[in-house]
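Expect chain and fold; thus:
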Amino acid sequence: MALSRSSEPVPPAVTPGDGEVLLDLADASISSGLAGRPVPPLEIRSLSESLREPGGAFVSIHVDGRLNGCIGSLGSSGPLAREVQWLARSAAFSDPRLPALRPGEFDRATIEVSVLSPLEPVSAGSRSELFDRIRPGVDGLVLNTRGRHSLFLPAVWDQLPDPDDFLDHLQRKAGLVPKPWRPDMSFERFAARVFTRDRAGRPPVPNRSDQIRNVGAPGSSCTPSELRAIETRLY
C-alpha cells in the first residue's frame, strides 16, 4: 500500500535567494581553501531564518562533468549556512575517494548544494513494498543495517532510474550482497532542494529534486566508471 500524499517528505523551505547565498558561501569557502586561507567568517545576522537553522546538506563538485568531491551530513548542530561552508571545503579537498580540487580546475567546476528535508522512516518488508512507498526519481534514500549505512541523493535516480538497480547499488555500497532482502535492513527517505552554479557559465541543469522522471526511460544502463561516480554520492 502506498503512503498517503500528506506523509511524503517536503522539500526544505529554502528559497532561490537562499540557494544563491549558499552557493556564494560554498564558492568563497573553496576559493579561500585554494588560496591557503581559513573558511571565511559567517555573518549570521545577515542570513534568512532558514539558513540560520540547523539542517542537513550535501555539497558536490564536478569538474568538466566528472564528480570531483561529494561530502554531506544529515543534520548539523549549527546554522545550515555554516554547515555548507565546511561541507564545500571538505568536498573540494578532503573527500578520500576522489582527488583534491586543484587551482586550475576551479573555473571549470560546477558546485551543487543539496539541502535535505528531515529523514522519514519507511516501513517495508520486501523490495516491492519499499518501491511502493518511495517516489522513484524524487526521494533520496538511506539504508541502515547492523551499523552500516549508505545514502543516495535524489540526483542518483538520473543515472539509476530503475528501482531495482538503485537498490542494488545502495546495498552494494553498504557492503551487502545485492538482491537478497535482509530483515535487519531499515530505510529512511528524504526530499532535497538542489542549487547549482557552473563557474564556466554553462547552462544550468534543471532542479532534478522537484521532477518525477520516467523510471522506464531508455538509457538506464551505466558504464563502470559512471557507476563508480554514482556510488561515491553517499556519506
Notes: Residues 1-6, 206-235 have pLDDT under 50 and may be disordered. The CA atoms of residues 168 and 179 lie 6 Å apart. The first strand starts at residue 56 and ends at 63. Strands lie at 56-63, 66-73, 109-116, 120-122, 140-145, 148-152, 186-190, 192-198.
